[in-house]
Amino acid sequence: MSVSIQDFGKSTSGQTVKLATLKNDFIEVQLLSYAAIIHRIIVKDRKGNPVDVVLGYDTAADYELNTDSMGAAVGRFANRIAGAQFPLYEEIVHITPNQNGNCLHSGLHGFNHTMFDVALTPGETDSVTMTATSPAGTDGFPGNFDLTIQYSLAKSGLVIRYGATTDAPTVCNMTNHSYFNLNGHASGSALGHRVTVDADFYLEADAASIPTGRKLSVKGTPMDFTEEKTLGLDIGADFTPLTDCCGYDQCYVIRDSGLRHATWAVGPETGIRMEVLTTLPGVHLYTANFLAPVTAGKDGAHYAARDAVCFETEDFPDAPNHPNFPDTTLLPDQPPVATGGFRPVYLGSMQETAEFTPSQGFDDEVPGTVAYALEYDEEMLYLQPVASGYRIMPLRYGRSEVTVVATDEGGLAGRDTFAVMCRDDSREVDLYPNPVRDRLSIRMGRDVEGALRVTLYDAAGRRAFAAEVRIAPTAPAVVDLSSLGGGTYTIELRYEGGSLTRSIVKL
C-alpha cells in the first residue's frame, strides 16, 4: 500500500492543483485537489493488463473548461432543485438557476468548481482527506458549509466517506460524478456493458428531469435492471423517460437501507466487474447522453455521448420540495443521526450468534469522532467485542432489544434500537400462554413473515373463530380470544408456503 501527494499543475486562476495517488496490489486511484476529482482508477482486466476505467482530462484547466463535472465531487446539493428555490423552516430559499430555471448541481459555484485542501488522513496509512468550505450565501445557499471527503482503499475497492457541518440550517446532498467505461476510458461506447440495479422503483420526472414526487415500478418497462441486461438493450425504446432524456438519466430507489449494493456492471471486453455500495436511498443512472467535451480527453482520447455510464449515489433530487422524500436538511451542532442501518436479528437456537457494527447505523458526519455505547438486557444477551464490532450471543429464548448510543465530540448523542429474537427453530410454532385467557401470541420461524390466517375449531369441528394477522420473525402475531368460550380448540395456522394445526385450551 502506498499513498503519495504531488503537484499536478495549475488551475486557470494560477492555483496549484495536487495529485494524490492511492495504490495497492489490486487498484490504483488518482485524485485531484480541484473539485476532489477522481482522475484515474486503474485495475487489471481478465488478462492481467492494467486498464484505466474512468474518463477524464490531462490538465486541470481542461477539467475547468468542460461542464460535465467529470469525476468531481458534486454538492452542496447534487442533481436538481426545481425552480431554484425550496422551503426551509419558515423561509423560501432562492438559489442560482443554471438550467432551464432550475438549479443543477448547486449552481455556478458548487464543490465541482472548488479547490480542496488535501492531506494524508491523520492516524491512517491508506487514505487521504480533502476539505473545503462553501461560505454562507454561495449561490444563495444558507450556512457556512464545511465539507470533508475521505478517500481510502479496501482491497480492490475505493471507499468514499462524506462529512459535513454547518453553522445554520441548510440542505446537503453529495455525490461523485465519475464517468465509467470498464472496457477502458478511451474504448468508445459503453452501451455493451451489462448492468444490474437493485431497485424496484424509480422516480417519475417531468421533461426537465424534475421529480413529480411519485415512485414508479420498473417491472415490465425498459427501466428494469433488476436482472442483469445490456445497457443499450432498451435505451432506444419509445418510452417517455428515455426519449425525454435521450437515454437513461433517472434516479432509482435502492432497496433496503444501511450499506448495501446499489448497482453492478461488467465491461464485456475486459471482464472487469464493478460493484457500487451506498448508504444513500438513491442512485442516478446516467448514460452520458449529452457528453460533448470541448477539449480532448486523457491521452488525447475523443469522448462522445454514451461513451460512459455514471452511477451517482445520492439523496433524491429536489428532495427539499418533496416532504415524502428522505429529509436532506443539515442542521448545526447536529448529533449523529440514526439511519436505520440496523436490521432485526433472528437467532434460531441458543448456539447461533450474529455480528453487527455500531457505526453502520448512524450518519457519522466526521469519521472517527463518534463514540458508541450499548444498552441491552444482560439477562437476555451477551455482547462480545470482535474486530468488526460486537457478536450477539443469546442467554435466553425470547425477544430483546439492543440500543446503540452514538455520542460525538461535543457530547451530542443519537440513538437507534433494533430487535433481537432468539427461539428454538426445532419447534415449528410457539403458542403462549397456553392455556390462554384473552390474548394468544404466536411465534414462528425466520421464514414465516407477512399474512397469517388463524382459524379455531371447537370439539365438534365447527369454526369458532377466524382472523388474519401479521407476523414477522421478530414480531409475534397476537390474536384476541377474549370473546371465545372456554374449552379445548384446534387452531389452524395458514401462511405463505404452508400450514399447521395445534391444540390450545381457552380458560
Q: What does it look like?
A:
The chain is mainly beta and 507 residues long. Helix content is 2%, strand content 45%. The chain has three domains: 2-324, Distorted Sandwich (Beta-galactosidase, Chain A, domain 5), CATH 2.70.98; 337-422, Sandwich (Immunoglobulin-like), CATH 2.60.40.10; 429-506, Immunoglobulin-like, CATH 2.60.40.3080. It is built from two helices and 42 strands. It has a five-stranded antiparallel β-sheet, with no helix packed on it. The chain has a five-stranded antiparallel β-sheet with strand order 19-18-21-24-25. Strand 1 (2-10) and strand 2 form a beta hairpin. The protein is elongated, with a radius of gyration of 27 Å. The N and C termini lie far apart (70 Å).
Give the key terms.
2% helix, Beta-galactosidase, Chain A, domain 5, mainly beta, Immunoglobulin-like, 3 domains, five-stranded antiparallel sheet, single chain, 2 helices, 45% strand
What Rg is obtained from the alpha carbons, in whole angstroms?
27 Å
How big a fraction of the residues is strand?
over 45%
Structural class: mainly beta
Estimate the mean pLDDT confidence: 94
CATH architecture tag of the largest domain: Distorted Sandwich
Q: What's the CATH topology label of the largest domain? A: Beta-galactosidase, Chain A, domain 5
Tally of DSSP helical segments? 2
How many domains? The number is 3
What is the helix fraction of residues, given as a range? under 10%
Distance between the termini: 70 Å
Record the strand order, biggest sheet.
1-2-3-4-5
Mass-distribution shape: elongated
Q: Stretches where pLDDT falls below 50 for ≥5 residues?
A: none
Q: What is the CATH top level name of the largest domain?
A: Mainly Beta
Largest sheet: 5 strands, antiparallel
Q: Quick one: how many beta strands?
A: 42
